[in-house]
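Predict structure. Chain length: 166.
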Amino acid sequence: MKQPLPSKMMPALVAGAAFGVASGIPIVNLANCACCALAIGGGLGAAFLWLRNAPAVAEPPYGDGLLLGLITGVIGALTATIVGIPFSLMGSAMGFGGVEQMREMMGDQDIPPALENILGAMGGTGFGIGAAIVSLLLSLVLFSIFAAVGGLIGTALFHKKAAPAL
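Prediction complete.
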């Protein structure tokens, strides 16, 4: 009788929340600059947690690993956005970001009107509801893709291979 695989929700929640918190903290989130390392690590961690008590199977459950990674990426993106909001607000309060700072950085050069409109729509001073939405959408796409890759790699690494039937 074939034993079912364990639920994917708790490993996805734990790993997604962990890498989401890390991705939302300034400086620590720079690890995502290295090929979305935190997202891939989140997918790997979710696969490890999911498969550590799983029964041995003949073939790795790659489809389940992919789905686990996608769920982990979505949870991580939501968590990173929520954790990142206070840091963005602190940066805005200290005068970091926005059109004014970009003008100072560029010196005599003019900011293209299209870029100025985008920055204005995102909040102008570095943070706004538009910036949070853009950040969330971008994170949803990128974190889901890279966490799915991590889930696939983790499934290949951590699944228990069943002995062939005689």
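Summary: The mean pLDDT is 83.
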